[in-house]
Amino acid sequence: LELKIYSPKESIIKHPELTGITTVCVERNYIWYGKDNGEFIRFNKSTGDSLVVTVPYLSGLEKCIFTMAVDSEYVWIGAKAGLIRYEKSSGNWEKYTTNEGLSANAVLNIGSDGNYLWIGTSYGLNKFDKINEEFKKWYKKDGLIFDQIDCVAVNGNYIWAGTILGLNRYSKIEDKWEQFTTNNGLLDNWIRGIYVNGDYVWVGTKNGANKYNKETNSWQSITASDGLLSNVINCVTESLDEIWFGTNAGVSIYNKVSNNWKNYTTSEGITNANVRFIISEDEKLWIVSSSKEF
Length: 294
Fold this sequence. Notes:
Elements: E1 2-6, E2 12-15, E3 21-27, E4 30-35, E5 39-44, E6 50-54, E7 65-70, E8 74-79, E9 82-87, E10 93-96, E11 107-113, E12 116-121, E13 125-129, E14 134-138, E15 151-155, E16 158-163, E17 166-171, E18 176-180, E19 191-197, E20 200-205, E21 208-213, E22 218-222, E23 233-239, E24 242-247, E25 250-255, E26 261-264, E27 275-281, E28 284-289
Antiparallel strand pairs: 1-2, 1-28, 3-4, 4-5, 5-6, 7-8, 8-9, 9-10, 11-12, 12-13, 13-14, 15-16, 16-17, 17-18, 19-20, 20-21, 21-22, 23-24, 24-25, 25-26, 27-28
């Protein structure tokens, strides 16, 4: 697995020294990388220095870091062993598992929401109060379409949670769940990525992408016939006027102004066609591709 940078100058800079990357977070002057060997790296963009930290509590086949989130004080790490907190100022560690109230130990995705974290696990969705260190949990019996939550997106008063059986939307105000499936307009129920911008929700599935209009409650389908390299969508993000789709065949970019598409594959410099993450940072994007699945 390798990391590349794309900028509007259309240059791709390869970083073959960064192997085993499973997740990326951007925080002002730093880039944080989670790895499959139980380490994370803090890269200083100004100096070029890197700090490599070995995460405790991870051992054997359970070393892989699935997800990360960063705030002003802490780095939050999701792994099979639970939710792990690293205090940046002191270097102290804290672990949260089912013993502390987490619905399941395997943390697959984390969404940041001010003083709260929305945590997707192998069994249930959690809202974690960072101040009081308390968990609130939801399961299928509470309105989720499926218990395993693979991706989470925070959008004001709404939380979007993706599963292999469809998409969930939670209203904080109404304390109510809604479910969306192929019956509502999704191309496929296996949700692999969610990105929210303005009036729209962009959803990547195993069979194409969907654009949801929150005002009209309508779905638009986007497939390879429209310009995508592949219908297998791993992630979605936005940079300037463009929507970026990471697929299993490379990167597809849709320009919202010109309504045009362009694609990047291994022919244009991407080392592996299976693009797992794209992280937007100002006029740069960090692209993580890998033949592995985590």
